[in-house]
Amino acid sequence: MGKKVKVKKSRESFEIVPKDEDIPLPAKRSSDEVVPKKEKWINKQRVLVLAARGINHRDRHLMKDLKTLMPHHRPEAKMERAKSLSVLNSLCEMKHCNKTVLFEGRRKRDLYMWLANCPNGPSVKFLIENVHTMGELKLTGNCLRGTRPLLSFDSKFDEIPHLSLLKELMTQIFGVPNYHPKSQPFFDHVYTFTFLDNRIWFRNFQILSEDGGMSEVGPRFVMNPVKMFSGSFTGDTLWENPEYVSPSKTRQIIKKSAKDKYVSRIDQKAKQEANRPTEAYEDDGLDIFAGDELDAAKIISSKYFVILLFRRILILLYYRKTRYEKVYSTKNKN
Amino acid sequence: MTDFDMHSSDSEAYSDSDEELQAAFQKGELKPGLNVELQEQKEKANDIPRIRAAIDEIKLNLPWIERLDMVNDLAPLAPELAVQLEKHEQKRANQFKGNAKIPYIQPEDDPILNDFKREMLFHRQAQAAVAEGIKKLHALGKATKRPDDYFAEMAKTDEHMQKVRKNLMAKQEGQAKSERIKQIREQRKMGKMLAKQTKVQREMDKKDMLDQLKKFRKGKLKNLDFLEDSKAKAGAKKKTDAKRKARDKKFGFGGKKKGLKKNTRESSGNIEKTGRNFRKPGKAAANKRLGKSRRTKTKGKK
Fold first, then answer.
1. Residue B274 touches partner A, C-beta closer than 8 Å
2. What is the complex's ipTM, to 2 decimals?
3. How many CB pairs under 8 A join A and B?
4. Is the pTM of this model over 0.95?
5. Contact (CB, 8 A) for A316 and A297
């Protein structure tokens, strides 16, 4: 008996589970919990988002989308085009902003975007291409207004100097400050910035599940960097894109190539008209087109002299080149 | 591009001295407009030390939770994404196979396939970012998911999301429909094949039967059992050929088509532009319908 008891005791002691020291955190917080006071707002970024006159509807919607995603933005009325851009620095100061996003349209079709650190710079000018706004129906995701996005940059942003400057600037502009009064304390979307084909591709994904389920929220656009300046909207050029070709230039090239096509076609027609024969071949009473080709050729060769034969064969070849080839190819096969 | 190439080759070819050029000009070999002065290519700025200085100047030295920036490589290709990619490639290949009007493009250069692959790239980068970021946030003791009973304004409105849902449904429906139509087409094809086979079979049967009958007549066979096996299948429904008739009426039917475009003795001697491809000059077909104003006038009279 005594022995048995001993065994039991040892078993019991073995079954005691040691208390886990780091308890896994609950993935969700309950809504009854008291919201902590938001005095820890230290990263005070304020971004002035505005457009110059002359942007088109799609670009305006893009700006609107960015505003909905950035609770730390300050709106501003459209700017007149004639003013020099350095006016923006004083505007920024009046609005207590330290960053600026300016959208500038050209010819109602091209969109340029400026990102600037006011008032000391640097600033960057981008050409924005391939804009898709949040309103598009194929972008099926959705996210809370004002949640903080995770910012993902691809590894090129660490390697190339001007890209790391862009990374710093974009982190400060597009990232929502922690404990910002208008922000939400959850994480449900992620921005990706990818450097590809000399451009920076922007995408916004909703996090459906934390193990990698995604759906795109939008907007999506491609930033083609043009120039970087040391000041904000002023200063020396720090970097310039050697591969940049302005969109009007590309359109011009396309038009020019199209023009060549038209001209050459007209030329060809004119030449053909000019070289059209005025006299028909004299009819020698032989119908070389009737019957078998080889028979016709034989008749011709038997009837005429060599020169005439040569001439006729040339004519024959001219008119019936393709058919001859066909005949020979079949004969060779057989 | 071509302009640029031409200029550069010019600069290599014409490295003559001034005297030679002057001589050439006297001979009349040089004409104004043939030679273009090359503009010197301006060096594009890339001031790396100053860029580095600017980075140091604006850098925010704050903990990661304030910034949330990450540098990510791609997440490994998830199996469902790989399947999706494969499906897309297959679909594109089928498109090329099924439609001769689409010029064939190598899969590596296909912009549509490349678009798809590129989006996949972004998707994978985002996945990697989420995997890393959520782990970091949990390590910092931050809750990431919102509770189910937490409602707040979304970036897209409910109406908009309804629209999105509707659009998705419509797309799926369309796909199902096209799938069904494809199946029906396949079935019809099979049916035609079967019909052909049965026709051949029936002819064979008939021939057999006639042979047997001949044999019977000649007295080689004694009984007429073979007649009962091959029952004449009556009541075989004849297909309506209204569609065929309509097409024949529209496009014509029968007649010789071979050699219609061949040259003849007459055409070889003829230098006039005659033929079906040459539009004859003259008046266009008279428009039988009157203009709007005259139509309204006649309407008013009635």
1. no
2. 0.70
3. 220
4. no
5. yes
